[in-house]
Design brief:
By secondary structure, the chain is an all-beta fold. The protein has strands at 3-7, 10-13, 18-25, 33-39, 46-51, 58-59, 68-73, 78-83, 92-99, 113-116, 120-125.
Length: 126
């Protein structure tokens, strides 16, 4: 089983940037596709970005496309989420996840992931 720990969250002004990191242990992450989800109070968990096992494919919803970039360093067992041009509506707890989605569209589904981190808070002030 893989264990995931997120870091890098914090408070930032609108228009600013943050980089989240997700460090894995227990299993090498090249065994898994990786993703970032977020959840705001009172809302469902939302897919933010996904990346295939060796980084050849990435997936983003329209809400973050062009602003967020997911990347991975399998040698360091770490996944990153670079977030630029942040907006107040990006405020949420951000979660890292590992899994084996069966298709591109499956990346969007939380049930496709077998391991989750504890989350890191991102707050964007207006």
């Amino acid at each position: 089983q893989v264990q995931l720990v997120e870091s890098g969250g914090g408070l930032v002004q609108a228009g600013g940037s943050l980089r989240l990191s997700c460090a894995a242990s227990g299993r090498i992450i090249s065994n898994y596709a990786m993703a970032w989800f977020r959840q705001a109070p009172g809302k469902e968990r939302e897919f933010v970005a996904g990346i295939s096992r060796f980084g050849s494919n990435t997936y983003y919803p329209d809400s973050v496309k062009g602003r967020f970039t997911i990347s991975r360093d399998n040698a360091k067992n770490t996944v990153y989420l670079q977030m630029n041009s942040l907006k107040p509506e990006d405020t949420a707890v951000y979660y890292c996840a590992a899994g084996r989605p069966s298709s591109g569209s499956a990346y969007y589904t939380p049930a496709e992931y077998i391991a989750w981190g504890q989350g890191t808070q991102v707050t964007v002030s207006s």
